[in-house]
Amino acid sequence: MSTKHERLQGSAPRDLLFAAAGALAIALQVTLLRELIVALSGDEAAIGLGLAAWLSGIAAGAAAARSLAARAPRSWAATGFLLLAVSGPVMVLACRFLRAWLAPPPGELLTTGPSILIALAVLAPPGLLVGIVFTALASAASLFGVAPGRGIARLYVLESLGSLAGGMAITWVVIPNLPPLRGIALLAAACVLAAIPAARRFLPARFVFLAAAVALALLGTRAIGGRLEEISSRARFRGLAPGIPLLAFADTPYQHVAIGGGDDIRHLYSGGQYAGSFPDPVSSETTAHTLACLSPHPRRILAVGGVVLGALRFLLTHPVLRVDIPEPDRKALALVRRYLGREDAAALDDPRVHVIEDDPRRFLVAGSRKYDLILVLTPDPVTLQLARFTTAEFFALAAASLAPDGVLVVGLKTAPNELTGETAAMGGAVFGALRSALPVVHASPGPEGYLVAGRDAESATLDPSRLADRWKSRAIKTDRFVPEMFGVLFPPERVRSQEESLARAAEATPPSRDERPVSFLHALARRQTITGGATGRFIARLAHIPRAVLFVLPLLPCLLLLSAAAGNRGGLLARAAVHAATVTGACGMVWSLLLLFSYQTRAGALYGRIGLLTAIFMLGLAVGGGFASRAASADRPRARTWLVATSALALGFGILLSLSFLLLPAIAGRAVQSSAPFLFALHGALLLAAGFVTGCVFPSSAGALLGADGSTAQLRSAKAAGAIESADHAGAAVAALLASILFIPVFGLTGTASMAVALQAAALALVVSTPRPRG
């Protein structure tokens, strides 16, 4: 009785420890991914590269701990947990100083090699510790009378629930209120404190845990952590903008914003990417007058990006009645406003200017106002967030908000002379998307070019004489701009040549769409090619591989394993279990990325909700793991039955998701898109289901693997947990990298979801082909 009572007494601290490990892991992952995005100058590949490094580390740690943790599980669990907690602040500092140390010359981007080095150095070590801790905790659970299968399943469920809590805390508490270094230090201290009750019975390091919690809490104070935050932020900025002093910086739920420079000129960096310089009254006035004259009467203007830094006050000298500026990130705008010149800041207070705290796409969907001029002056679509402003669906929304003689102007950086390679492909994808929404499309020459579109050829024009007549009719007094500038900016022969080049490129490249953002793929490839690294060339080559061949390539390992299984059936169930965990881990990552991207595209402001959406996926993992937990301790015949059933369930969900992406444009029409709660509920429900089916396969695979092993309980726990954890995260690591930078842009949402269906079908076929074991 006393032994049973002791076990019950120890279960609550043990469960709290499991949950704390999950919360600590997700908090570290979110924080370090945000740091990596800034370090890589906002490159979308940073997300895939970072997740791949993180998950690869978990896979390696789990594989390494399979035998090591079985010998001394409590020591490995305690040491790994403490090192994991400390690694958060250490890796934040490492990421910033590595970026400064590996800084390229001024004006150049970080090349591929250093980018990979930073990702591996910053995210792989914590991932390695996560893999070690999970495997060691699973092994240590057996020392307290927990059956091997149930111990793994319980750990999986509680770790997922802890991830849910950690994701909510990092998103709702830490990111909005604390800078990253101090925030992760305080959150890590809280996780260590939560683990202390288990330290006496479950882990042999209670006083060490208390000392670590105190040290992390001190690092989270303003006096210590605040000073380190400033020093490391200045070091990172030196890597991003060599020779430019840092004036101010802020981390918001949407991005990292930094302002550098001196009293004469300042430079804005958004997410580590250069976004503009100010004040520059000469350039700003030229830009503003040029843009305003592209409309015959710019009374009502909608501006998406680009005008706040200086052009706005000059736009207001035209016959403007209203300027709407949708901007979701108020915190970033407030920081920029503090450093604007007096006249530029005053322009924001003009009663004709309305700054709306909303995503531009949602604002267009929900609005009913018609505009004479819509300006889309966002940077190149080198991220999925920016690519959503270059798709046919976005241009259709903008066209619906244009007055009959309204004009839509889209900034497009191209080559100063002939368009070739990825620049031509990117321009063709945007040009084709815009041409699908409006009948008249003109293009000015690069490098700082514009696409000018509308319904009326008289209104949407780049004819220098017509633009000069508009300028003269407005009688604006200025010494910096003259009507002859239009002939310099838009020489007819160069305009004609640019339009012909883009039209040819549009014939060779499909238009960029929400479902398949082709502009993102080519913009990213162009950006990577500029660095002189191999990544850009590799992406460009992959983009030109026949789609059918590219679709089949991920299936080759599955097909080879199926072929090998036909000739050798010994140990097939164990191999099928590991294969099912690998494939489902990859598909789970793909499903979550697809749904996050779909939500971002249709509802906007993903970064404001990414923590909650990720937490919902984690909740699904916990529910699925709990539902299938009996499979982890079942005998071999029942374990195989569970594995068949859960693999079939995963396949069914993949088919459902593919169909939902086909039907979503129909059910999420204009009226529904304006309903943010509906879109959130829809994507949240699908994420919950994705997590559920992914969570079901994990204990089922563990049960099948445990049933095939005759080792001791402790060794079986370590080996099974390590093998399944390693397989699950290895599959997710590969999927994170390839899906984000290649498969989604090439195949789109539906095509990528169909690829996941094919992978799940192959995994199910392998499980079904295994002979039914004897009881």
Give an overview in words.
With 775 residues, this protein is an alpha/beta fold. The protein folds into three domains: 1-220, Growth Hormone, Chain: A; 280-520, Rossmann fold, CATH 3.40.50; 569-775, Growth Hormone, Chain: A. The protein has 29 helices and eleven strands. The chain has helices at 2-39, 45-71, 73-101, 112-141, 148-177, 180-199, 206-219, 222-240, 281-293, 312-315, 330-339, 342-348, 360-366, 384-387, 392-400, 421-435, 464-474, 485-489, 492-508, 518-530, 534-543, 547-552, 556-567, 572-603, 606-627, 636-667, 670-673, 676-707, 713-768, and strands at 246-251, 256-261, 266-270, 273-278, 300-304, 322-326, 353-356, 371-376, 402-413, 440-443, 448-454. Mean pLDDT is 83; it is low at 1-10 and 708-718.
| Biggest sheet, spatial arrangement of strands | 7-6-5-8-9-11-10
Task: Profile the largest sheet.
Answer: 7 strands, mixed
Beta-strand portion reads 5-15%
Give the helix proportion (percent range): 55-70%
Average per-residue pLDDT, rounded, comes to: 83
What is the number of helical segments per DSSP (H or I, 4+ residues)?
Answer: 29
In total, the number of strands is: 11
Distance between the termini: 32 Å
CATH topology of the largest domain: Rossmann fold
Look at the helices and sheets and give the structural class: alpha/beta
Low-confidence stretches: 1-10, 708-718
CATH homologous superfamily descriptor of the largest domain = Vaccinia Virus protein VP39
Shape: globular
Using only CA atoms, what is the Rg? 28 Å
CATH architecture of the largest domain: 3-Layer(aba) Sandwich
In quaternary terms, these chains amount to: single chain
Class of the largest domain in CATH? Answer: Alpha Beta
Number of self-contained structural domains: 3
